[in-house]
Amino acid sequence: MHHSHHLRRGRVSLIGQIYHVTFATAERKRLFDDFCLARAAVRLFGTLDASGETHSHAFMLMPDHAHWLFTLRNGDLGRLLARSKTLSSRDVRRVRPELDVVWQKDYYDHALRADEDLRVVGEYILANPVRAGLAAAPGDYPHWFADWL
Length: 149
Known about the structure:
Layout: H1 4-8, E1 18-24, H2 35-50, E2 54-61, E3 65-72, H3 77-95, E4 108-111, H4 118-126, H5 128-131, E5 144-146
Antiparallel strand pairs: 1-3, 1-4, 2-3, 2-5
């Protein structure tokens, strides 16, 4: 049985905190095998950075989910992620209007502790396509970003 309300227990939203967030497509559909849909979704990260809400350190958009490593610069984590899904869904539906729901409601978030290395977490995120058998090396997969590279 899935208890999505348990995911929210203990969540804290702190300005200046670095978060690793993962969110999945509705029904884990492989929407982002479609290059145009993936590029529409990727615009989200730049939009939120430009608005001053986040500073993205790394992201990886996989066929059915996204990993995002960022510093929260403004606002509330829950509202930011709801806004993220709304904005990216809008952009994705401009390409494929027939899509009703793009993202699952829930998400996983992890606030990095002081003893965690941002680069190590980022490298783990960037290695996702390699672990999934989608690329031989992280840079071979098209939908990623790392601010240290």
